[in-house]
Amino acid sequence: MMVCVFLSRKTAKWMFCIENLHILAVVKVTMKFESILDETNGFGRYQIALVLLLFIPRIAIPCHFLMNNFIAAIPSHHCNISSLSSEGIFGNLSQDERLTVSIPVQNDGTPDSCHMFSYPQFHLLSNSSSPSEVAVVQCQNGWEYDNSTFISTLATQFDLVCEKRGLARASATIFFVGVMAGTVFFGVLCDKYGRRSMLLVSYVSSIVFSVVSAFSSTYIMFAAFRFLTGFALTGIINISVVLSIEWVDTKHRTLIGVFGSISWSLGNMLLAGFAYLVTDWRMLIITVTSPLLLATAIWWWIPESARWLIANGKVETAYKYLQKCATFNERRDFTSRVKPEALSTVTTVDHHVHSYTYLDLFKTPQMRRLTLFTGIVWYGVASTYYGISFNITGFGLGLYLTHFIYAAIEVPAKILIYFSLNKVGRRITQTATLVLTGVCILINIITPIEYWTFRTVITVLGKGLSEASFTTVFLYTTELYPTVMRQNGLGYASFMARLGASISPLIMLLEDMWTLLPEVIFCTLAIFSGLIAWLLPETNNARLQETIEDIEQMRKKPIYFTTEDQINVPLKLPISADTTQ
After folding, report:
1. pTM value > 0.90
2. Helix or strand or coil: residue 420?
3. What is the DSSP string of 371-406?
4. Which region, left, alpha or beta, applies to residue 257 given φ > 0 means left and ψ of -120 to 50 means alpha?
5. CB atoms within 10 A of CB 387
6. What pLDDT does residue 15 have?
7. Per-residue pLDDT tens over the stretch 372-400
8. Kind of pairing, strands 560-562 and 115-117?
9. Would you call 354 exposed, middle or buried from its count of C-beta atoms within 10 A (0-12, 13-18, 19+)?
């Protein structure tokens, strides 16, 4: 009969397994970070203050991501005929009469946006029929725009209409390509230099690039700095999520993840108000960037991740942050219960021996499988979400109201997701939200356009579900990757998401080939990625994995020896009298 005895000291934990008075194994048990975090109160005032500090910059993120709905809007326009007026050709004709003789009308009775008659057709004033073939030419002297909704947009500033119409929508793609590139940059440097320092870099560079883009004198200049803005904003997105999750205990990760994502919905709703009040594209960019100034001022209060510090061998610094956390959370006995040397027993990795890169995501079987599946899920989530978000016309509602409703539906969706994540788990929630989003898109595909009220309700429901899938995937991915690869893993996943987001505006251009083609593509992506999510492991109430070895051992299903302080030791001991681990 084998008996295992567990001995605990403040600096180390040991287990002796004895059979017939012979010691079969002596195992030094490494501590888990959660055990130390519990000693500080893993969900107290310190964690709440951290989430609130990170809440402010996260409000600016959705404003930049979805601002293209407003700054790239194309108002009604027609050829500029003021030069003909200066030549005295029109005489005393009214403005409507001048348009009648100068610009052909479209099927809906509105003036053509891109063409004008090669010479004035004065006979049209007497309602006589025009010749079957009237010579028309492209606009010769620019365009006149309807400024009743927008004072200025990218389209009116740089004449992105007619044959250049695609450039207005391409500005969103350029921004997301920048975000996509930023995920690689910040993913590597955050794991190497820490979360806190790179967060400041992201704050400052986002402000600088945004302001410069607002004062661009050419479209090329705007596109370049819009790319850099997206590049810089990526750090805020990924670092704020990781910092929040790494400082909170296991049972409150869902609450923190969902509450933090409320900042996206709040910022999204505020964007509708900002855009309604500020109708000049330059001032709108500056307005939505202003929260980052406050975020930079309060950056000094944001702590470094103690989990990252320990994983990188900076035990003394980690202990100082943990002391501050314990003091703030009124755990006065922390220093007596946990000594600095105890942190050296936390499961970690020697970064001096191995420097982790994105290649480590693909080197081992389980990490490779995890990387492939999370990439597909993130691509599907982002492509579907932005495919719906950028389509805010054609529902019988105003531009601002539609955007606001799209944003407001996200709040109840997040609240429901909080209960779903805890009750049914991450995997089922991720799968269900994606598949149901695809079903909503499918319903709209087969529903006739004249039932616009029903279509609007279904679209809003689909938008809520797509946001729920986004909220889930951020928390889910953070829990799936180990600490040593968490920022790289989230960076890669975010890269795939931005790839999907950057292609979404281009997919919408396919409606010129077949009106329903973009919806068919988004529907397929949502359902397929939802089914892939079912293949991922469940992480509800599970410890965060620390090393790649932890990920590889997850599939081996070892039996765990659990103590009162929740230190888990695999009971897979070799039967040898002199074996020491």
Report:
1. no
2. helix
3. HHHHHHHHHHHHHHHHHHHT--SSSSS-HHHHHHHH
4. alpha
5. 27
6. 47
7. 999 999 999 999 999 888 876 655 567 89
8. unpaired
9. exposed
